[in-house]
Structure formats: C-alpha cells, structure tokens
Amino acid sequence: xxxxxxxxxxxxxxxxxxxxxxxxxxxxxxxxxxxxxxxxxxxxxxxxxxxxxxxxxxxxxxxxxxxxxxxxxxxxxxxxxxxxxxxxxxxxxxxxxxxxxxxxxxxxxxxxxxxxxxxxxxxxxxxxxxxxxxxxxxxxxxxxxxxxxxxxxxxxxxxxxxxxxxxxxxxxxxxxxxxxxxxxxxxxxxxxxxxxxxxxxxxxxxxxxxxxxxxxxxxxxxxxxxxxxxxxxxxxxxxxxxxxxxxxxxxxxxxxxxxxxxxxxxxxxxxxxxxxxxxxxxxxxxxxxxxxxxxxxxxxxxxxxxxxxxxxxxxxxxxxxxxxxxxxxxxxxxxxxxxxxxxxxxxxxxxxxxxxxxxxxxxxxxxxxxxxxxxxxxxxxxxxxxxxxxxxxxxxxxxxxxxxxxxxxxxxxxxxxxxxxxxxxxxxxxxxxxxx
Length: 436
Fold this sequence. Notes:
Blueprint: H1 2-12, E1 18-23, E2 26-31, E3 41-43, H2 49-65, E4 76-84, E5 87-94, H3 101-119, H4 133-143, H5 147-159, E6 182-188, H6 191-203, H7 208-224, E7 228-235, E8 252-259, H8 266-282, H9 288-295, E9 309-315, E10 342-349, E11 352-360, H10 366-385, H11 391-431
Parallel strand pairs: 3-4, 9-10
Antiparallel strand pairs: 1-2, 4-5, 6-11, 7-8, 10-11
C-alpha cells in the first residue's frame, strides 16, 4: 500500500522522475514515465534487537550518503526498513537539484494523505499541478535575462561591496583546501527565552528570526572579535501561488551583512537587523550563483565565497498528523560532512527552542563551540529580559562570564592536579618508592 502511495506522489511530480542526461556537453532534463519509481523493502525483523537497531542506523546513514547518479536517477530515493510486523522506518533522500526544505514537507504531506486514504479504503484523487518544476526552471531562465534582474543584481553589488576575504575567524589555522569533517553540539534554550522571544520580536515589529539573528551577531561578534557579521540564510522564494505545491528546488540563499558599530542598545541592533533582513527579502529572487558570478570574489580552495557561516530558524518537522493516526516520528541521519565552516540552527517545536551548532572540526574545537553556544544563550536571556540593555554592557557581561568560567576550569584543573599528586604520594607510602 505504501508502495502505491510513493508511486502516486512520484507520478504527480515530474521532478521525482527527473534525470539529467549529457547532451553534447550540456545537461538536459529527462522525465521518466509514470510508474517508474520503486520502493525497495529491507526486512530486518528476524534480527536480534541490538543487531537490528545497529543495522537500521547504518542503512539509513548509507542511504543519506550514497551519491546520486545524475543520468541514472531518479534524483531521490525511498527505502523502507521493516523492523517488526508493526514498526517500520522510511528513509527519504532528495537531491538539492530537485528539492528544497519545503519540498520535503510537501512530499511527506502528500505521501501521508495518500497512504491514509488508501488504508481507509477511500479513492485517492488529486488534481493535477498547475505548473511543474520544469515550468519554473524555464520561467527562471527567462527572468535571468530581464531588466528587472539587472536592477536586483545592482542592489547586491552595492550591498556586498568591500566584504573582507574571510569573514569568520577560526580557532585553528585554515587549511589551504577545504575540509568537511564535522561535529555537532546541541543545547536546549531556557524556557524563558522560548516564551519571551516572540514578545521581544513583536515589540520591535520584527520576526523571531530577526531577533535571533541580532543575538547571534552579538555572540559571534564577541566570540570572534568582529565589527560586522556576514551569514548566509535560506529563503523559500515561493512568491507565486502556483509554486506553493511544487516539489523542486525553488529556495534561494541570501547574504545578510550586519554591522555592530553605532548601535547603543540591543533594541537598536534588532532594528538594524530588521532592515537588513527586509531589504534582502525584497531582492531574494536573484539566484545566489548569479550574485557570486557578478561580484567575482577571490575564489580560494580554502573557503566558500562571500560567507562561511549559515544561520537558519526552522520548525521541527511535523509528520505524525499526516499518516492517518499512526505513531510517526522523524529519524534523521547524523551529518558527517559540513558544507559551511559554522552552521547555527534554531529548531522550534512544542517543547521549546533547541540550538544546533554544526562546525568543521579542522577549524573549531568542541570547547570553543560550546562557549559560543553559552554566549548566544546569555545574549538571548539578557535581550528578552531587557531589550534596552546597552550593547557595551552586554558584551562586558559576556567577557566577564567567560573569564569567570575559564578561571573556574583552571581552578578545577589545579585542584585535580594537586589531588593526583597527593594520591600518588599516598600510594607511594603504602607500596614503597614509585619508579618510572
């Protein structure tokens, strides 16, 4: 039954049946026939509990990391793991050429609705899409040649002129060629922050994202001694109503450049962050690749152009209500490769706010990232409690808190060392001289 649902959703969306074939050195889109998508099932039910859980994690990780064949397709995969007669795991992996974050939400919603109706014995009828992803691609190619696109590009040319070569100092020397090994640090933010953040944003006529961006700028600026913070962030970019139900890569990346100088209070910085975000959103249709091509920054193998930090706020994926009352929960693969030097993600859920820091281990230490997370937490707590707090006072508190923490760590290390010496002397008295 789930196989039929997967096939039905793929039949409705051409992007899920798309491959890219080589035609004289150029990639051309080729749409496969209806009914061509399959759902393989791997039965693990006969294995012992520990072995089954380990193999399931390994298979999901493998599904996430296995490269796609552009010409062999499709550019997404679905694999069903049978853990028991009543428990299954569905691994869904989509290439960014055909899907963005909203596409995954759409895919799960349609899949859950279709599957729920089939289980209930109902006839599944969905209207055809007004446009397919290929139609959007054709429209975008025409728009790229328009006068409006040239005017929009002029905004980014002016906004991003004079960017420093590397905007994010690192704890460790930057390798000559980018590396991608990653680690993740996660922490739940205090309840007071989760509850107070919407009010903080509303008073400033801003969004929670803007308030979080301002707070992250303070934390990054303090931790990395920056006068301005430059980050990349995704935008849905679905400005046309007919694109709302399309599975495809419609999202875009915009660059947010926020100066810290000249802002007396956090409220001042939040107002500036609001302006920066709104202007960026107004010019978000220009593809990021076009911005890079126009600005022609020095391209180096050691880092990405224009920005190295990624900042995003997103709601936790909700899937339980779409699968006909079944107990459903998301199970994600653990990322092993980091595209950005640093990725800060705020996940919103009914339980509150969780900060996820993904970082390149060749550039940052675990202790340094934990310190950054603490500072961001402190900034949010202080901003929610007193948005009129002066920034110099706020950064002073951050420095004092970090110095106190380092002093406590040094004191604890000294106490442990002294205790170790006493323990060695005690053992020596009990057993005789100790030689090395």
